[in-house]
Amino acid sequence: MTEQLANHFEAIIRGLGEDPTREGLVKTPERAAKAMQYLTKGYNESLDELVNGAVFSSDNDEMVIVKDVELYSLCEHHLLPFVGKCHVGYLPNGKVLGLSKFARIIDMFARRLQIQENLTRQIALAVQEVTGARGVGVVIEAKHMCMQMRGVEKQHSVMKSSVMLGAFREHAQTRQEFLNLIR
Q1: Which residues contact residue 177 at a Cβ distance below 8 angstroms, ignoring those fewer than 6 apart?
Q2: Residue 80 shares a structural domain with residue 21
């Protein structure tokens, strides 16, 4: 698979008018192929394998929040990066999720060709599925290179997206508590 991707990257380099045999580009197709495989490794991961049983019984029924989790993804429209942070909150219903698993879930979905709106929803649904929470809230704030490096070239634009499930959607007070805590 790496060799096939490398051949495609070599064709792209040629298509750009460059010489893939010049010193600085000799190994670029293979490096680019490996980088792309890493940046899209989420396709080869599953929620069950990532969580690996790290859901624990708990009497806590108050909001749990993990905020400022860095994320890196590739825009499915231009294959350019978007970079930001993700905040996840949930209301446990007898079960809590191991802390590192939030970052792993975020990365699994972010490491796919993606749009931010769908990424936000996928993370929320996964946390809901794994924990059986009474509610889940996810907010992502990201800068998109497709807006900064090309097109409109707006350097300071930030996209924010949110998905609220269960009590976070149904109860304004719960949603507001979450939003206040992630500020």
Answers
A1: 63
A2: no
**CATH number, domain at 121?**
3.30.1130.10
The total domain count for the chain is 2
N-term to C-term CA, the chain:
43
Write the pLDDT tens digit of every residue in 59-105.
999 999 999 999 999 999 999 999 999 999 999 999 999 999 999 99
- Choosing from 49, 70, 76, 170, the catalytic residue is 76
Q: Which of 18, 30, 37, 78 is catalytic?
A: 78
pTM: 0.95
- Of 30, 37, 45, 146, the active-site residue reads 146
86 included as an active-site residue: no
Q: What are the backbone angles phi and psi of residue 54, rounded to the nearest 5°?
A: -85, 45
Note down the domain range covering 32: 2-39
